[in-house]
Each structure stands twice: as C-alpha cells, then as structure tokens.
C-alpha cells in the first residue's frame, strides 16, 4: 500500500487550484466526487458497496486520513484502485492536496471518490476541485445536524442519509431532517440508504451514473 504525506496549501489560492483540477478532470472525462461526513458515518462502507455494485464503471478511491491505511486496504481488497493520503494532521483536503493525490494515484478512471477527512466542519470550507460534493449523514448522528453544521449541507450536491436500517433504534425523524436540509439547500438531491442491507442504493447508483454521463456531455 502506497502512502503519501501532504500538508495544506495557502487557502487564498485554493479556488484557482480547484478550478484548474476541475478543468483537467473535465477534459479527461473523469468525475471526481468529494465525499464528506463525520468520522464513522459510513463513508468507506458506502464506497465499498458502490464499487461492488457498479462493476462496469472504473472506480478509484483516494482515502484521506490523519493516520493509518485501513480504508485504502479495504478498497483495494475489492479490486478498485486506491491511494491512502496522510494529511499531516490537517482536518480537510484542499485542491493542491487533492491534485497531488490524484497525480500520485495515476491511471485512467471514470469515477474517482475522495473520501475526505471525517469532520463535518472544515472539509466544507475548501473546494477540492471535485465535480460533485456528496455528503453523508448517518441516522445515529441525529436529525439536528443540518441546524448545527449548515455549511456542508449548503455546499453539497448530494446528501446520502445512511444507516436507515437503524431508524427503529434512534429518535431520528427522516421527514424533519429532510425539511431542515431543504431549507438550507433547495436543490440538493437526497438519498436515504442502508449500505448494510443495500436498501435505497439503486436510486443513488442511478444518480451517479447520470452525473457521470452529464459530466462527460456538458
Ligand atoms: N447498521 C449499519 N451500520 C453501518 C452502515 N454503514 C456503515 N456502518 C457501520 O458504521 C461503522 C463506520 O463505518 P465506516 O464506513 O468505517 O465509516 P467512515 O469512518 O465514515 O468511513 C462501521 O462499523 C460500519 O459497519 C449501515 O448502513 N448500517
Ligand atoms: Mg472511512
């Protein structure tokens, strides 16, 4: 397993670097999806399910963490290309770090997921150069998170509400959560799923296929 260490870049130039990476990816027809959520919400589990289900799409994953290589090993075991990024203590990925990780991974892929550092705050503040921001909120975290961490909900194109198999055990009001999210971001697409049982995954997968096709057309 290859591990690269990256430090943060100057934030003032981040938007320019993000636009440059996005233009490169567009040229190559590669859709980069920035996956953001708190630690333990189910990012790696969701990505594993997507890799297993979307066999006809070449998927690669950049795993960003402060330490360890467990997530990249999990992804590689499924047969997808993966690289582990160590962020040098940083709680988010920026565009320069994402570009360096993408270049270090190499190869030609259809869909590249960036599993951002587990954190509901900082990752939302940095444009990584992705063509799509996907946020995950899991049922055990509670339906009040849109109220507490509004920026990430505003910045995301897709919201996956995961671990719906646990709805019976938590006081999580799905309708209330969705209306709180819609008040922040009326155009966000929302997918309640269980990555464990597969419930709801088909709609999310159809959406990702559509996003990839329109990324390549537009
Ligand atoms: N019940 C249930 N557990 C899940 C689901 N998705 C992930 N988990 C569990 O949540 C924990 C954290 O998942 P992981 O994918 O490592 O989260 P990450 O830190 O966001 O990458 C693990 O114990 C997973 O098995 C789900 O849909 N349902
Ligand atoms: Mg993970």
Protein described:
It is a single chain. With 218 residues, the protein is of the alpha/beta class. The chain has one domain: Rossmann fold (3-Layer(aba) Sandwich). The protein has helices spanning 14-28, 43-53, 70-77, 95-105, 145-148, 150-155, 174-184, 201-217; strands at 3-5, 31-36, 59-65, 81-86, 111-115, 132-138, 158-162, 189-192. It has an eight-stranded parallel β-sheet, with helices on both faces. Helix 3 links the parallel strand 3 and strand 4 (81-86). The protein binds guanosine-5'-diphosphate (GDP) and magnesium ion. Magnesium ion binds at residues 43-44, 71, 115.
Here the CATH topology equals Rossmann fold
Helical content band: 25-40%
Strand content: 15-25%
Number of strands: 8
CATH architecture: 3-Layer(aba) Sandwich
Bound molecules: guanosine-5'-diphosphate, magnesium ion
Radius of gyration: 16 Å
Number of helices: 8
CATH class: Alpha Beta
Q: How would you characterize the largest beta sheet?
A: 8 strands, parallel
Count of structural domains: 1
Put the structure in a nutshell:
With 218 residues, the chain is an alpha/beta fold. 38% of the residues lie in helices and 20% in strands.
């Amino acid at each position: 397993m290859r591990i690269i260490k990256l430090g943060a870049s100057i934030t003032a130039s981040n938007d320019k670097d993000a636009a440059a990476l996005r233009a490169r990816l567009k040229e190559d027809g590669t859709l980069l999806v920035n996956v953001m959520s708190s630690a333990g919400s189910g990012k790696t589990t969701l990505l594993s399910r997507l890799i297993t289900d979307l066999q006809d799409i070449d998927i690669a994953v950049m795993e960003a963490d402060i330490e360890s290589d467990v997530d990249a090993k999990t992804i590689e075991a499924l047969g997808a290309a993966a690289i582990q990024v160590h962020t040098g203590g940083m709680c988010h990925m920026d565009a320069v770090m994402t570009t360096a990780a993408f270049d270090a991974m190499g190869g030609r892929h259809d869909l590249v997921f960036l599993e951002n550092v587990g954190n509901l705050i900082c990752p939302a503040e940095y444009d990584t150069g992705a063509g799509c921001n996907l946020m995950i909120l899991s049922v055990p975290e509670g339906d009040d998170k849109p109220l507490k961490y509004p920026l990430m909900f505003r910045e995301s194109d897709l919201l996956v509400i995961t671990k719906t198999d646990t709805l019976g055990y938590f006081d999580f009001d799905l309708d209330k959560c969705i209306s709180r999210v819609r008040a922040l971001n009326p155009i966000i697409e929302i997918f309640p799923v269980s990555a464990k049982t597969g419930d709801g995954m088909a709609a999310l997968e159809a959406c990702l296929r559509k996003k990839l096709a329109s990324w390549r057309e537009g």
